[in-house]
Amino acid sequence: MSKSMVSPLHDRISHRRGLLAISPIIVFLAFYLVVSIIMGDFYKMPIAVALVIASMWAVAIFRGKTLSQRIEIFSKEAGSSNVLYMVWIFVLAGAFAMLAQKVGAVEATVNLTLKYLPPEFVVPGIFIAACFISVSIGTSVGTVVALTPLAVELAQTSGGDVPFFVAVVLGGAFFGDNLSFISDTTIAATRTQGCQMNEKFKANLWIALPAAVATLILYVVMGARVDNIAITQEINPVLILPYLIIIITAVMGINVTVVLAFGIVSAMLIAIINGYAIFDLFGFMGQGIDSMGNLIIITLLAAGMLGLIKAAGGINYLLQLLSSRIFGVRGGQASIAVIVSLVNMCTANNTVAIITVGSLSKQIASRFGISPRKTASLLDTCSCITQCLIPYGAQTLLATQLAEISPVEPFKYLYYPWILAFAVALSIIFTCKSVKKVKK
User: Model-level pTM greater than 0.90?
Assistant: First the structure.
């Protein structure tokens, strides 16, 4: 067991030091969310500028290190393997999205969907597709890459609200991220708590499935608002192949970078057959990669800032603060839910959050007789809820970049994570079947 997992219970962090350590998050939210709400426009304060200000604050308040050492910590966290892996996904996603759009793959796929799917089922269909794909591939990022461009084009073609359609994709993506057997969050939650995946799945299903069904019913009602679009132009079915390849290879469990590479190659081959010049296709890909520049900068800034928060003891402070205020079985479950959610806010990575609090959560569960499968379910579910709701999470940033909207615009339409949070609360309140007898 690493020192970082046990230190919150042994090394006391003063309230002054702890609050100062987590203050960059407050600075970021104040400059981005609060200023945007006051101005009534979320484009007035660019998220990158808010992160620059918060990052500068994080560097300035860090104690016990020279300026060069603080910058080194920031740079090391921003350049970590996980962050650079996301950057690779962003680059490939940008290239594929623009290429598919320019050669007509997106338009053909959307027209085919609208031709055979009644308009009132377009929104529920997107949600079901996102749930199915995410459960199959175990990653919300891969689901966002596969479906967001289609959802945006569907919204624009059918007269729907783009942020609403993006929120539908995000909700379905996190449904599968939470439940899939091959999701890294599932693996992290079950390993840290020492339970079988199928046991965690059963406990999780009673929470996530009712929330998904309730959300689907809501989308069926709201889907009736989509206009009935008559498709008059001829549809070239060959142009649909790049998206079929993306979805099929993703469902097969192939790495998302390889999936995107397949999509790019297939789109290029089809475009060349249809008479496109190779250098025009390179130009389209370059435009797509360029469009991801702001997203990459935001990702690097957020990772560096959150790394400084962790190095300053911010995460340990949150663990220390919450673990000392637990009363009863329900309190133990609630504390696990809150701890993983707050740490997820400070890491913007649900898998990292689960691993960070896994040891402490297991101790809380043992103390209050909470079953390992229930603890694993709480860790996975609550981290996914938080990751879906924060505007600086990789999934939201990628989806909104592909849709060319502000990262906070889908927030008011994120019905699934809020319904899921309500289901978690009910599972904690009616907790008698989820715990074992407490040892005296």
Answer: no
